[in-house]
Input
Amino acid sequence: MKQMGRGTGNWKRISWDEALTEISQKILEIKKKDDNLLGMALTKYSGNFGITHYGVEGMMSSLGYTTRFVGTPCWPAGIDAQNFDMGNMWCNDPEDFVKSKYIIIWGGNPAWNSVHTMKFIYEAQDKGAKVVVIDPILTQTAAKADVYVRIKTSQDGVLALGMAKHIVDKKLYDKEFVTKYAKGFDDYLNYLNKSVTVEWAAKESGVPADVIRQLAEEFAKADPATIWAGYGLQRHTNGGNNVRAIDALVAMTGNIGKEGGGARYGHLQTWGFNYNAMVQKQPKGSKGYLGKDIIKSEFANDEAQAAAYANRTININKLAESILTTNEPPIRLLWVACKNPFAQDFDRPKLLKAFETLEMVVVVDQFFNETVQNADIVLPSTTLFEENTVNVSYWHYWIGLNEKAIPNQYEAKSDLQIAALLSKKINELDKGSCTFPQITDTQVWMEKEFNDGIHKFFGIKSWKDLKDGPRKAKIASSASWSDKKFGTPSGKYEFSSDQAEKFGHTKLPEFKERRKAYDKFRVLTPHTQFGLHSQFVNVDYMEDFNKEPYVYINPKAAKAKGIKEGDMVKVENKVGNVTVKARLTENVAVDVILMYEAWFKKGDFNVQNVVDDESSDMGTFKTGAPGVAIHDQFADIAKA
Output
């Protein structure tokens, strides 16, 4: 489809040949104008995490050096934190929750968002384990726990420090672990004794001192005990520090490297693919980004200079700001895949302005969503039922084959097929402009991702073995770090991290102030029960369960504002506003309002209208850009 005037809704159907010809001509025009393709940018994330979907990045590389939005909105602060502490992000097998005696689910809501894990939590409870949920919101998971602890938003690190201090005071820490397998514990102990008290932690976190002491003692005495740190608690300006403080709590009690224990966050142990689809060579003569610190005259010959070229990288969490401010050259063509920026990216009002500056927007998607509505050309993509790929997880340890179940529907094509067709078209217009192979069978691409390491790790001889069903990784222990050999520079767990200091953080997981409030209420925009970000809520039958959006407000706060159940209200801040129906509930604190993020195809509800792009503290070390403080937002509310 082609839109006559971006955002006008004046669409017309065009052929694939017409679409690819127009896109190819624009790419060649940019290349001629700028003498490179840095004016062509890709923003892509996890709308489809099948391994072959890295072919989108491969397509961009096959055209030349381009601009890439890098990083992740999901979990980067926590990734950096765990790398500083342990040398990698690596969690226990979630199936070994059943071996735990004490489980803290901290800043996560798996009863809604990880339902496949809840069975193991329930089994642990049945065996006598105590389950504690720490969260600013009384969630469905909290309702199923033995204990619910309401904490002030973004003060998770404070609570962890208070618990650690009480464990130190009671000498309940694991002396063997902190002496033999850790670096810097004495420094951490000195910091706790000098700067932390339980009473201070209670005041800052909102959790009573006696509760802090009880949690600390129960956690330290249980064997094994574990903490599941959800992604929500690191989406703050102090989020990485929050995770480091929680990691330290698990480490000092000797629960890292222990089955049924662990500081659980995520892992990438099962991702040892070839990334064949992603790794494509640039056409001969391609020019790219040299970087601020590289002077062209330093190069002795053209070959050496060519070897120094790279893609230009920009923070994925600042899409709007980057489009508006990037120059030399400016971003001219934006390619969007596996992502719905207008429902998910930050500072949506600014994003509308940013899109006005682009010369062309191409969106590859399955649905006519908000981002498609702001595109020039939309290319219909296949669903998982129409292609072959393979899936692994960043949580569990299974691998599964995704086999093509039905033919491509109507005119839809996979990302790999689109790349091959674009390559063919642009080479017809200008020979040698693209290196992407003319392979359109997604099974062939999938086969190329397997190697001996994957075969051995999952106990298979070929990908074809997966036709008999998914396979679980052959791991010696369900516990990460079971040999106590960590991936840090010291080879030990690092309470004190020199790497953290190099990236501008404190060596120790010290207290860090949360973002100062700039409006009356804290605004939380967590995941809904009924969708996955902007997916699924738009499906017709799901609308029967989730007909319309709401803002949730505490009855005391509502009374002070003259708001009653069912009133239409306006939530407004410096970013923008949302008009939505109010629901009164004590599940949220008096100073908090909550709206679940989702895309409703009927209506203009969008929580990103009141969410700015403020960065979290960590993320650059391992993902290339800091995370985003999604839950450090503020607004006022009034009757509409």
Q: What stands out?
A: The mean pLDDT is 95. The domain at 521-639 is CATH 2.40.40.20 (Barwin-like endoglucanases).
